[in-house]
Design goal:
Elements (H helix, E strand, L loop, with lengths): L3 E6 L11 H4 L4 H15 L2 E6 L3 H14 L2 E5 L8 H7 L6 E5 L21 E4 L4 H18 L1
Parallel strand pairs: 1-2, 1-3, 3-4, 4-5
Length: 149
């Protein structure tokens, strides 16, 4: 099994550190990527880190992951609550999927409480700030190892 993980980020996460820092913190997406790349090295996994404001690009990366990746970590951002298309793409991926959210979506507006992605995810991490990305990488690496055993 591949030890490559796709880490996919949805809309507006390119503004991390600038947009609503009282909710999302002051770290940038570049900071998150740097920390995730370092952890991936420690865990012995490869990492493809992507962000897009366009739903179709995220779907295309999920399709690409089908042939190359052993796991997906995804922060779908606002697409969490709207995208059946991302759910359908994830349902074609036969390896671990971890859903992540920087904020605790369950303490926010009611429309944020429903996630289409959760119907496919093997786990959901929410409310741990950007540290949640590292938790997700550790978990997906463990799931890849368990599947390979």
């Amino acid at each position: 099994m591949s030890r490559l993980v796709f880490l996919l980020n949805g809309p507006n996460l390119n503004l991390l550190g600038k947009r609503q820092p009282h909710i999302y913190g002051h770290e940038t997406l570049a900071d998150v990527e740097r920390d995730c790349q370092a952890l991936a090295g420690e865990l012995g996994i490869g990492l493809r880190f992507h962000q897009s404001n366009r739903e179709y690009e995220i779907i295309d990366w999920i399709h690409e992951a089908r042939d190359t990746a052993g796991g997906i970590v995804i922060n779908p951002a606002a697409f969490t609550h709207t995208s059946v298309a991302i759910l359908d793409a994830l349902n074609t991926f036969d390896a671990p999927v971890i859903e992540i959210h920087i904020s605790n979506v369950h303490k926010r507006e009611a429309f944020r409480h429903h996630s289409f992605v959760s119907a496919r995810a093997d786990g959901v991490i929410a409310g741990f700030g950007t540290q949640g990305y590292q938790l997700a990488l550790r978990r997906v690496a463990r799931l890849i190892d368990e599947k390979a055993a």
